[in-house]
Design goal:
about 220 residues; alpha+beta; BirA Bifunctional Protein, domain 2; four-stranded antiparallel β-sheet; 4 strands
Length: about 220
């Protein structure tokens, strides 16, 4: 699980986002990073029992994103992220397709699952699958546990108008406008130290499996 000291490191980093402070507190960073890698290992163990595409022997170090920011083309020149990110797929954080992302950040921790900003061919395939099998899609996203943990799909990445080839009165118009097909589940900080957290994670991941399978089948 994620320790309180890891969250404390992230809080202090957000207040002191500079290279001098980071260098002075490098041991705390190393401890926090190891804690996150251990947590990633537990996530992989849970997910591999639920999702057959996730290998049980996936190296957790390959799933944890670097904390260093790429500031070359950014107006924000702070050198470090104020969170730890974990990407889980058949190839860890580097995968082109539906996958999982877990963010560890004070006040903004969450689980995300789905296909974020897929390329044109994959985007068309997902929209076509929703168009062809809308009743199956509806059944998946309306299941009680799915709605309990995720609500509905994120609408942050969405077209203002209908994509070409679909009527404006299509029954799934709001989903066909999406450019990313992801769902989010918020995690309260205190949950990371809860003894039943792994059991909770298992339920959260199980509830999203039909959605992930739908995306995999659409782009297979």
């Amino acid at each position: 699980m994620i320790s309180k000291s890891t969250f404390e490191f992230l809080r202090l980093l957000a207040e002191n986002n500079n290279r001098e402070w980071f260098a002075e507190n490098k041991p705390s960073y190393e401890d926090a990073k190891q804690n996150v890698e251990d947590f990633a290992s537990s996530l992989i163990r849970v997910l591999s029992k639920i999702d057959p595409v996730i290998p049980a022997d996936l190296d957790p170090a390959k799933s944890v994103f670097r904390i260093y920011r790429d500031i070359r083309f950014s107006k924000d020149k702070t050198p470090y992220k104020n969170n730890f990110g974990i990407g889980i797929s058949p190839k860890g954080k580097s995968f082109d397709g539906a996958s999982y992302y877990i963010q560890v950040q004070p006040g903004n921790s969450f689980i995300a699952a789905g296909d974020w900003q897929p390329p044109t061919d994959r985007l068309k395939a997902i929209r076509q699958e929703i168009d062809y099998n809308g009743s199956d899609f509806d059944e998946i996203i309306n299941k009680p546990l799915f709605k309990k943990y995720y609500g509905t799909l994120s609408t942050e990445d969405k077209l203002k108008t209908m994509p070409k080839g679909y009527p404006v009165d299509h029954s799934h118009i709001e989903f066909l406008k999406l450019k990313s097909f992801i769902v989010l589940h918020e995690i309260k900080e205190e949950m990371f130290q809860n003894k039943k957290f792994e059991q909770h994670l298992s339920s959260v991941f199980e509830s999203v499996q039909p959605f992930m399978l739908f995306l995999h089948n659409a782009t297979a």
